[in-house]
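Please check this:
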Amino acid sequence: MIKIFSYFIVILNFGKLILAKEEEEEWDFVGSHGSLMFLSFGIMIPIGIFISRYLKIYKWWFPIHIFLQSSALAFMLTGYIIMLTKIGFTLETNHAKVGFATILLMVITYVGGIISHLFYDPKRKSAPIFPDRLHWYSGRLIYLLSQVTLILGMRFVFAKEIIIIYSFCILIFLCVPLIIELFIFQKTKHRKSRTRKDIQEEEHQ
């Protein structure tokens, strides 16, 4: 009887080891997928967008922009492949639906950036709608969609408090370019009013 009980205990412990290993593998999958997606959409893409929008006065903006967005694309595809190998293709959750739409838009926008670079005309007076402006605005849309995707993904892993803190950080980050845009708008408006005033003074002289 004691031997049977001992065997039973051994079997239970072995079962616990198997479950622990499965949970560890599950966390490795979730951690790898989430980390790669966060590096791509939470760090590289927003920095790349910020540089291309506000730091074009520096010569180094373009190679850094390409490096960041290319790395982001590589991390994103790697993270997506990890997910596919583990659970296969699925659109059952909102995280999967928004994430898949974000990935498609990311690939399209990346191709649009290549086209924009190949057909760039240094003599042009303004940027054309296609592909330049579409590339700009689709990139910003990617950032917004990706943050929604990240938050939806966090709901599977993290506590509600962590998600709230992350969402608050995103709002703060979004306020930075908004303040810069308002400053640029006011500065441009002031410059135009001064130019108009100078023209009127010249006409009266």
Observations:
- The radius of gyration is 25 Å.
- Residues 52 and 62 are 7 Å apart (CA to CA).
